[in-house]
Amino acid sequence: MADTKLLIEQAYTAFNKRDIDGALALMTQDVSWPKASEGGKVVGKEEIRGYWTRQWSEFDPHVEPLAMTEEDGGKTRFRVHQLVKSLQGEVLSDSEVLHVFTVKNGLIAAMDLGDEADSIAGPSAAFAHRS
After folding, report:
1. I need a labelling partner for 5 at 20 to 30 A (CA). Which of 23, 71, 100, 124 fits?
2. Beta-carbon neighbour count of residue 104 at 10 Å?
3. How many CB atoms lie within 10 A of CB 45?
4. What architecture (CATH level 2) is domain 2-116?
5. Quick check: 32 and 47 in contact, CB under 8 A?
6. pLDDT category, 131, cuts 50, 70, 90?
7. Domain regions of the chain by residue span
8. Contact 92, 85 (CB under 8 A)
């Protein structure tokens, strides 16, 4: 599971650097990803690219992994510190959240929000304050 930890830490690093290509290189073609700032999900690398581009035009999110827990069924849970700022630097949210990853063949196949009752319904509370 050390490889999974490294893989996901590399994805967080790329995300925080706004290195979309670097992050997407760590994912399967049909990766499933939550749209935390909009609600719903996206599937596939190009949909993630579009979503992140929109997100970063409105918010400045930064996530740092704090702890990892392996689960049954090939899932890995990461507790992360998530800091969301407006583009003007105002702190909108400073919290810990859970991200649940599914890794297949050494690549990220899915990420889900593990601490919200219905992550598909609407935006995460961290993104409730639009800039």
Report:
1. 124
2. 12
3. 19
4. Roll (3.10)
5. no
6. very low
7. 2-116
8. yes
